[in-house]
# Entry
Amino acid sequence: MPFDAMAEMSDETLLVLFANGDGAAARALNLRLTPRVMGHAYRLLGNHAEAEDVTQEAMLRLWKIAPEWRQDEAKVTTWLYRVVANLCIDLRRRARGVALESIPEPEDGRATAAEILQDAARAEALQEALDQLPDRQRQAVVLRHIEGLANPEIAEIMEITTEAVESLTARGKRALTAALSGRQEELGYGDER
Amino acid sequence: MAMSDRDDMSGLEVFFDAARAHAAEPSVALMARIEADAQAVAAQTSAPPRPRRASLSSQLYRLLGGWPAVTGLATAAMAGVWLGISLPEGMLDGANESAYLIDVAPELAFDLAGGNF
# Structure
């Protein structure tokens, strides 16, 4: 099948095509899903190299599960978000058990904030604040407010109720607001309220 | 909830917008590794299964000539068993012993009876 014809196809259809031996479907899925998986893994981990490892592992699991995939079962992205979150949580638990002291302190952005774009500084500040949240709060906030998913889909990914999702995102946002409130002036946060 | 969603979002939305605009992107090397993984998994799952070595019984079955020959053999074997366990009454009933006894050396029998060695 021509590669261009795959642009309109759903992730689920492409996965079935891949399982049937279509190499172009794998390329299309790689281009479409890997950036999303990588972005999500980075937001949950705050570490580029670890996020790459998690992304490769999550995609490998997707290739392996392809022959057993049932189109009516779930969305590929829902499945991937769940796999990524589980891999990230496992990684963070292992890292916590190994050496807390070895984790570098977040860089003080005050000295460099004037030199870099304000928007990038905000993204970086948010990532630092996200890193301080408990795993489940971080996951819920990222899925809701950065990935832009609806609460029922987040509930499916996290295997909890929508009420629990709302509670996690509310607590997460309160913690983020508290963490970022001290950096309002530096990041131009007060100007846009 | 103490604060409404609107209140919560009043300041955070600019950070979320910034995070969306500055998403971490996969390197070219990572994309290549993932592509290679896909090809490796596809090659594994689409490889034809290795022919299994036939068992001894199936080799013997083929050696004998398949099902027609084995069916004939089984029938002959069962008939043999049946003949072996059933008494041959029909063959003996009312028959004269001399009809099926053949004396291959009558002179010898006479000599024995007469005691003339």
User: Anything to note?
Assistant: Chain A touches chain B through 49 residues (CB under 8 Å). Residues 99-116 of chain A have pLDDT under 50 and may be disordered. The first helix of chain A runs from residue 11 to 19.
